[in-house]
UniProtKB/TrEMBL annotation:
Matching InterPro entries: AB_hydrolase_fold
Protein's name according to its UniProt entry: Esterase/lipase
């Protein structure tokens, strides 16, 4: 069985980064009976892009994210992959997303787009 994270970034794990280890060590470690590891391995958000394209798109990405790097710079948060989910970066992240949704979902610009 492969651990999700490992304190040793060179040891075996699904997410071999110090940022991943620090983030997951603060989680309550319980799950239900579903196979979350298999679902995690099969997750690929790019398979769903056709549902929202060509609608306006905002991506908030972490500046030092090694798990889901991107060459698109739209809203860069300081820190690592998980830093936008809590602490001071959460407010900046949520504020940017809220403003984006207000601008694009509450306007006539979105009229005619399908919602999934």
């Amino acid at each position: 069985m492969l651990p999700v994270v490992n304190a040793d970034v060179h040891g075996p794990s699904a997410l071999p980064t110090p940022n991943s280890y620090d983030f997951f060590m603060n989680w309550r470690m319980v799950i239900n009976g579903n196979n979350h590891v298999e679902a995690f391995r099969e997750y690929n958000p790019s398979t769903h892009i056709h549902h929202i394209s060509p609608a306006p798109l905002l991506m908030t990405v972490a500046q030092n994210d090694v798990l889901t790097p991107t060459n698109i710079q739209l809203h860069i948060l300081p820190g690592g992959h998980f830093d936008g989910y809590s602490g001071p970066n959460f407010e900046a992240n949520a504020g940017c997303q809220t403003e984006f949704l207000r601008k694009h979902l509450c306007s006539s610009e979105m009229a005619g787009y399908a919602v999934y």
